[in-house]
Design brief:
By secondary structure, the chain is α+β, with helices and mostly antiparallel strands. The chain is built from nine helices and four strands. A four-stranded antiparallel beta sheet has the order 2-3-1-4, with helices on both faces. This is Transposase IS200-like domain-containing protein.
Length: 236
């Protein structure tokens, strides 16, 4: 079966998932996480991709990123994936592939949906039972978004910048988002979009994207998706 074309538009955020082959481990030591993030920063800068959120799990990776050029994202992921496979194979005396096929990418509405995906990404270690709170997980953008830690590869979402007038206010507002439960509908919508690499956003956003794209595939699944309104703290 031929691969479906990806939805790729410069200036629009995308939720990227890359998994280890057969769910095998991709990160073995602290150095592995560090190497991956360093190379992610390098290739993101080289190919003009803004990284807004990330989490490195034991056997997969989530990113929320905005490419500035049409091929920015694919070039970044290709270079990063190849480098990291060579690094792991050399470090651990192994051969063969590391990743499970090509990465998945979902075009995301830059408004509240992008903030919802950012939360979804950073809550992965909590849902996996690895930590009780995202602040306790070191390999996540929560350290920058919520706690103000300097992470060189991180760039704030446009929707993040309107959470407050100062960095401290934005961090506080972002932390408050995590005190609100993530609805089942929100989880279902993000997961469905990720699995099928559909467009994630409002109906207006989907219509807008459909008008801009020239691809021979639907931007949404045939069955009706769940809808939701993700709460955003607008206090500054």
């Amino acid at each position: 079966m031929p691969r479906q074309p990806r939805f790729s538009l410069p200036g629009y955020a995308q939720h990227i998932i890359q998994r280890g082959n057969n769910r095998q481990v991709c990160f073995f030591t602290r150095q592995d996480y560090t190497v991956y993030l360093e190379r992610l920063q390098h290739y993101a800068q080289q190919h003009q991709v803004a990284i807004h959120a990330f989490v490195l799990m034991t056997n997969h990776v989530h990113l929320l990123a905005t490419p500035q050029l049409e091929n920015s994202l694919s070039l970044m992921m290709q270079d990063l994936g190849r480098y990291y496979v060579r690094y792991i194979n050399k470090s651990y005396g192994r051969t063969g592939t590391l990743w499970e096929g090509r990465y998945k990418a979902t075009l995301v509405d830059n408004d509240r949906y992008a903030l919802a995906v950012s939360r979804y990404i950073e809550l992965n270690p909590v849902r996996a039972g690895m930590v009780d709170h995202p602040a306790a997980y070191p390999w996540s953008s929560y350290q920058a978004n919520a706690l103000g830690k300097t992470i060189q590869l991180w760039q704030p979402l446009p929707a993040y910048l309107v959470l407050g007038e100062t960095a401290a206010q934005r961090q506080q507002s972002y932390r408050e988002l995590f005190s609100q439960p993530f609805s089942d509908k929100a989880l279902a919508e993000i997961r469905l979009a990720s699995q099928g690499e559909w467009v994630l956003g409002s109906e207006h956003f989907k219509q807008q994207i459909n008008a801009q794209l020239n691809v021979q595939r639907s931007i949404t699944p045939s069955r009706k998706q769940p809808t939701y309104s993700e709460p955003v703290n607008e206090e500054t």
